Amino acid sequence: MAARGNKVLVIGLDCATPQLVFDAWRNDLPNLRRLMAEGLYGPMRSTIPPITVPAWSSFFSGKNPGKLGFFGFRNRTRGTYHDMWIATSEAVREDRVWDIASRAGKDVVVLGVPQTYPPKPLRGLMVTCFLTPGIDSEYTYPPALKQEIAEVVGAYMLDVEGFRTEDKERLLRQIHEMTVKRFKLARHLLRTKPWDLFILVEMGPDRLHHGFWKFFDKEHRKYEPRNPYENATKEYYVALDREVGELLSLVSDDVNVIVCSDHGAKRMEGSFNVNDWLVQTGFMTLQEPLSGPVPLKEARVDWRRTKAWGLGGYFSRVFLNVAGREPEGAVNPGQYDQVREELREALLSIEDDRGRRMNTKVYRPQDVYSGPYVWEAPDLIVYFDDLYWRAGGDVGNRSLYSFETEIGPDDAVHAEDGIFILRRPDRAPTGKVSGVQIYDGAPTILALLGLPVPADMEGRIIHL
Predict the structure, then answer these.
(1) Mean pLDDT, the chain, integer
(2) What pLDDT, on the 0 to 100 scale, is given for residue 406?
(3) Strands (E) located in 204-277
(4) Out of 3.40.630.30, 3.20.20.10, 3.40.720.10, 1.20.140.10, which CATH number does the structure's domain 8-268+414-449 have?
(5) What is the distance between the alpha carbons of residues 315 and 346, in angstroms, rounded to a whole number?
């Protein structure tokens, strides 16, 4: 049943984390606390993997990555070892809620949602995301909106510049500036443009967590008491809550409001060098030893004697080197299941640098995905120690364990649960709930708009 008013405001806070919003700093976030008190809230389980791409597209489409056809920002070109493609809006083949709403005659505003560059026509306005090369690109629909944005906020910020940096003062300043500009633009569009569905996604929390988690989390290996940024993360959340409040002050009481995040965050213990482990265990063979770490594509891998290789990141994508599928495949297709199971069992037995068996999760794509693109997924998806350890992708390290990443300073990994808050003006408060899945986003939004939910959406409508 559609809610009164049928307008929906979605505020996406990329990487906003339940333990901070719902627990640790709840009393310091009056606007988010009020939404929780007036509606329902709880953790929202992300996609496998819990990464911005594909998570936001799953939230707004109600489809799993096996139907969407991408499993991260970068995706391996099938039949190659190193070729990758970036999942921009051109990779999104399924409708997202604004596509459906536009066709139904609803006015929509889409601001900052990942995988919207390059922009596509819709009934309303679009400002694209951090995957945009820069503001010199065509990052708006219609194109003339660029000039209006410049008049409202000056030089618009699609993202911060290089969030993996030791220049923490500059990074923190950029994060705050980006957030202020995004919300200033959102307030302008909210006041001056017609809309039935208004969607904003702010990337600030994600950039903050990767840059500053070690400064406040006393359980982090690198935490130092009384450091100069001890309060930086909390202060940002307080500022972010204030921005949310100013945005909410512009909407009437009969508007449905959703605040959500695509995944959460938690401390990073270190990087587990998966390709060095594959060499050590005999699944990968090098033609010659290495004197130091290099990207895998620069190593002389003996592919004819290599059964598997991995890609790095907050999770690891592990591929088997299958004869007839890869250029120099070493795994007989008839032995695929056996080799993959051997590899899975070996991954599950890995210990951390202190000799403790990691709580590693290893997923087979057919067990967690459905749809026509399951066959394009990695052969195994690996969460080292329940994601507390990221995966290092280079090879030739002195140890299986690194405490600096090969891509620059990073303090946090992604967690499986983001946040979900829903305030509906036609329902009484419910309080904390459980069981919300990221696929519930799209059907819930459409139902609140008073639109039918397509039968192939995987989520359920979240009611108060």
Answers:
(1) 96
(2) 84
(3) 256-260, 264-267, 270-273
(4) 3.40.720.10
(5) 16
